[in-house]
Amino acid sequence: MVKKTFNVEGMHCASCVYVVEKALTGVSGVKSAVVNLATNKATIECTENMDNTVLHDAVKNTGYALSMPEMGAAGHDHHAMESGALKEQTKISLIFVGVSILIMLAEFMLPANEMMSEFFHHLMPILATYMMFIVGRPYIAGIGRFIKYKRADMDTLVGIGTMVAYLYSFVLSAFELQLQKYIDTDHTYYEITIVVIGLITLGKYLEARAKTHTSSAIKKLLGLQAKTARVIRNGKDIDIPIEAVVVGDLVHVRAGEKIPVDGEIIEGESVVDESLVTGESMPMSKIMGDNVIGATINQSGSFVMRASKVGADTMLAHIIQLVQDAQGSKAPIQRLADTISSYFVPLVLLLAGATLILWMFYGGTSGFIFGLYSMISVLIIACPCAMGLATPTAIMVGTGKAAEHGILIKNAESLERAHKIHTIVFDKTGTLTEGKPEVTDTIPFGHETENSILLFALSLEKGSQHPLAAAVIQKGEKLQSKPQKVHQFKSHVGFGVEGVIDNHVLFFGNKRLMDKEKIDYSEMAGDIKALEMQGKTVMILAKDTSVIGIIAVADVIKKNTTQAIAMLQSKGIETVMMTGDNQQTAEAIARLAGIDTVLAEVLPAQKEAEIRKLQKKDKVVAMVGDGINDAPALAAADVGIAMGSGTDIAIETAHITLIGSDITKVVQAIELSQKTMRTIKLNLFWAFGYNVILIPVAMGVLYPVNGYVLNPMLASVAMSLSSLSVVINSLLLKRYRL
């Protein structure tokens, strides 16, 4: 199976979405089809050999059209092009609306003037004809789709409403002499056609402009890409297009420039601002051997890097693809709205017909006119647009906002599910902790100093490859003194090392090494136990037969871990740490982090089973991890969250990826999910509530109470504002501070 993405032309409401999806899923070989009203795109999962012509024909038979999306920045300007096309129509429409309103006011306020009345009598049909057949072409097309394909949408409703008003008025004008004996031919409804189409066109223009901001995150990410790169060829710097850079190229990056592609620094050092990609506010120091990300900014210093990922393989390209996929996906709550909307337009048509019939039977002498008026209002005030836009616009803004903060959400379902999380399970190493041991304590004994202890340890461990040795070496190398020469070096596997320095035999290792060499360390037993209770590994240094100091090493917790755990607990979320470490070490780390529950001595193969156990307790479980052995657990969790500093397989398996290593982004992801879901629910409440309340008003339920019949022109204002309010409410998410 493969995924294909197409632009869908002609969609205006949730009913359109349902029709196109149903047409595509009805094609043999199509597994699923997701159509997004906010992006006007269809994402189709189908067999690899599927002929695009078959898909095009299936959609064409419903009155819509598929087209191939443009690549790059041009592919994200759909709403900008739409608003540009509507802009000129809106200008003309507003002029015509203004003229028709002035004519209505003049007829109402000025003294009767036969010549002026005759002029207005002929001008209004001309204005209405232009509005109906030029500006109103999409609505006539909606009527055509209804007749030809038996598919009704928002354009159908507006088209029928305005066309009925136009045709009724045209008949009165054309057969005025013949009809004036039976009906009042002076009262035409051309102004309804003019004002309704004009105001709806204005509403569509404002809506399209507002929708351009929902995809601003993608445009911003695309704008981050460097246009050129300065590569070293034959010993010279030459500028080439970014597309021409290949893996292995040596790229020279100067201060103030954008880093063109992902790579590794092989010469020089610098400070890099990665905030636009990772969301990290503080610039990061980079030295030889460090990786750098394309599109980030080299603030100071010049360096040479070797390109490791180019084109579609770079982190920025990966981020853009993930955001696109998420914005094009559909949340479960949206599927419910789309299903309801599929029945909405046919129901409105039935209600409009029933309104006319009821008024004709029970409205007395003016029943037909009131019925016509009310029927047009019902058709125009009904707004499936708001229902169709309620969810996808919020999803677009929410996922875009997340990407700006270094939180990549794979699909809308993951964003929706995250707000329900009850329990979060954290892997320890590399997630809660830095993932590499560091020297945390150096305690000298006797006449020794911290520096002398570290120098002895550095000298003994200089040639070792053990992870604990690496921590000692890293700490010792910060000293000004050079390592001393070691003679008769010997490694005791599982115990430690020994060697001769300045004719003294030194031993450096665990308690078992001291016991083996019969060296007494009882005087330091209290310090050793206290450090071990903190989850630290203690190494003892002895000279000849006496202990001269201890060095404690630990995989320290990240600086924001405690803060993040406290924030999650304040939201009522249970926190669990899962690790292969022994119980004592695990509990010590958990105490430091403030975690509720510890699952210690869990083998990699058992992690998935532990997630399943929690889920059986009816809990929505999230798993946060970074390693290959976390992948099964990430996949099993309701929401898998991968640290972006982790392995590719963990990132690929997860539902949410956090770029970098800041664990507070877990809290931000949950907060954003909660805020987005609140926005969606408010949008849907407004969209459904608007229709439930105002459609009966348009039908005339208030007439027996206060004699009020809703003017179709006011109905068009209400309908336009309904769609616009949903989009604007979604855009308010952009102002939310994480």
Word description of this protein:
- Helix 3 (78-109) packs antiparallel against helix 4, helix 13 packs antiparallel against helix 26 (664-699) and helix 14 packs parallel to helix 28 (712-731).
- The protein contains 28 helices and 26 strands.
- Helix content is 52%, strand content 19%.
- By secondary structure, it is of the alpha+beta class.
- The strands form six sheets. It has a seven-stranded mixed beta sheet with strand order 14-26-25-24-15-22-23, with helices on both faces. A six-stranded antiparallel beta sheet has the order 16-21-20-19-18-17.
- It is elongated, with a radius of gyration of 35 Å.
Mean pLDDT: 84
> In which range does the helix fraction lie?
40-55%
State which percent range the strand residues make up.
15-25%
Number of helices: 28
Shape: elongated
Descriptive terms for the model:
single chain, 738 residues, alpha+beta, 7-stranded mixed beta sheet, 6-stranded antiparallel beta sheet
Write the layout of secondary structure elements.
Layout: E1 2-9, H1 14-25, E2 30-36, E3 41-46, H2 52-60, E4 65-67, H3 78-109, H4 114-135, H5 137-149, H6 154-174, H7 176-179, H8 190-214, H9 216-224, E5 228-233, E6 236-241, E7 250-253, E8 262-268, E9 270-273, H10 275-278, E10 284-286, E11 291-292, E12 297-300, E13 303-309, H11 315-328, H12 332-362, H13 367-381, H14 384-404, E14 407-409, H15 412-418, E15 423-427, H16 428-432, E16 438-444, H17 450-461, H18 467-476, E17 487-492, E18 496-501, E19 504-509, H19 511-516, H20 525-533, E20 537-543, E21 546-554, H21 561-570, E22 574-578, H22 583-593, E23 597-599, H23 607-615, E24 621-625, H24 631-636, E25 639-643, H25 648-653, E26 656-658, H26 664-699, H27 703-706, H28 712-731
Helix pairs in contact: 1-12, 3-4, 3-8, 4-5, 4-6, 4-8, 5-6, 6-8, 6-13, 8-28, 9-11, 9-14, 11-14, 12-13, 12-14, 13-26, 13-28, 14-26, 14-28, 15-26, 17-18, 21-26, 26-28
